[in-house]
Amino acid sequence: MAHYAFLNEKNIVVEVIVGRDENDGDWETYYGNQRGQRCLRTSYNTYGGQHLDGGTPFRMNYAGIGYRYDETLDAFIPPQPDDTWTFDQSTCLWIAPDDYE
Questions:
Q1: Which of 12, 22, 44, 81 is least enclosed, having the fewest CB within 10 Å?
Q2: pLDDT for 1-11, tens place per residue?
Q3: DSSP reduced 3-state for 54
Q4: Nearest CA among 43, 31, 38 for reference residue 75
C-alpha cells in the first residue's frame, strides 16, 4: 500500500489517497492522468526527514492537505503556523519561537 498526494497549480496538497505500490508501475503518472492533476507519492512513515520504522525517508514529511511541495528540496512542507516560526531546512518543519507557550 502506498499513499499519493494530489497538488494544485501552486504545489499545494489538496488530497491524499491510498493507492498501489510503485514497484509494479508508475502510479504517480497514472493517478495524475486520471485526475488531470500532479500526483506525487508520499511516505506515511516519514516525518522530519526520518523514517519512523528505520527505513529510508521519502520527501521529508508525509503530505497533508494544505502542505506545500517544494521542488528544490523534493519535500512536503506543512503550513507555517505563524509568522514568528522559522523554517528548518534539515527537517522541512517549522520551529516555534523560544517564547512559544
A1: 81
A2: 899 999 999 99
A3: coil
A4: 43
